[in-house]
């Protein structure tokens, strides 16, 4: 009888131990699953944190860049016509001085050389042009008067006219100015080589924006008009030069 009890007890003990092992195994499995889930949560949290930090860094860089850009001096190209200021100091011209010679490429590509027009009366008009074709009021007036003069003298009489533009921007649109004012005479840009050679050549005659210089048949400067003039005034002086 005692042996049977002992065997029965031993069987129950083994069953209990198996149950305990199974429970421990299940608990271990649950613990591993919990660890995996926790690890995944941590990885997702780190990824979200990295994304947030990345966005914050980008925003900070944008703000810093904008602040630096705002603090920098910004120079927008002026659309106003540039000043016609000779870089050479003006000198008092002599009455025996010949007009400074020059060559100018017309906007259509034709070369104008002053020396080719010796024996004619010549009108040289200086005009500043802004970045989008803006010109000052004086040139609107002078071009209109020159158009009237050229209608009477250009081609039919020994007279030539040239407008020397000072356009410092590539978008000065001289062709549009030619069309708007009906310019049939030569029109070119003194600044096409980055220099104002012609303006400097005529510095002695105190030229400025809108000045018209008349040259006689002997290649001497006969008259300078620095203010608005009229077609009748120009025509009268040109007739005198042609009759001389």
Description of the structure:
With 244 residues, the protein is an alpha/beta fold. The protein has 2 domains: 1-74; 103-243, Glutaredoxin, CATH 3.40.30.10. 46% of the residues lie in helices and 15% in strands. The chain has 5 helices and 7 strands, in the order αβββαβαβαββα. The chain has helices at 2-71, 137-153, 174-181, 197-201, 231-243, and strands at residues 103-105, 111-113, 121-129, 159-167, 186-189, 212-215, 221-225. Strands 5-4-3-6-7 form a 5-stranded mixed β-sheet. A two-stranded antiparallel sheet has the order 1-2. Helix 2 (137-153) packs across helix 5 (231-243). It is rod-shaped.
What fold name goes in the CATH topology slot of the largest domain?
Glutaredoxin
Beta-strand residue fraction: 15-25%
Shape: rod-shaped
> What's the helix count?
5
CATH architecture of the largest domain: 3-Layer(aba) Sandwich
Number of domains: 2
Determine the fraction of residues in helical runs and give it as a percent range: 40-55%
Low-pLDDT windows of residues: none
Quaternary form: single chain
CATH superfamily of the largest domain: Glutaredoxin
CATH class of the largest domain: Alpha Beta
Keywords:
alpha/beta, Glutaredoxin, 5 helices, 46% helix, 15% strand, rod-shaped
Write a short abstract of this structure.
The protein contains 5 helices and 7 strands. With 244 residues, it is of the alpha/beta class.
Topology summary:
Layout: H1 2-71, E1 103-105, E2 111-113, E3 121-129, H2 137-153, E4 159-167, H3 174-181, E5 186-189, H4 197-201, E6 212-215, E7 221-225, H5 231-243
Parallel strand pairs: 3-4, 4-5
Antiparallel strand pairs: 1-2, 3-6, 6-7
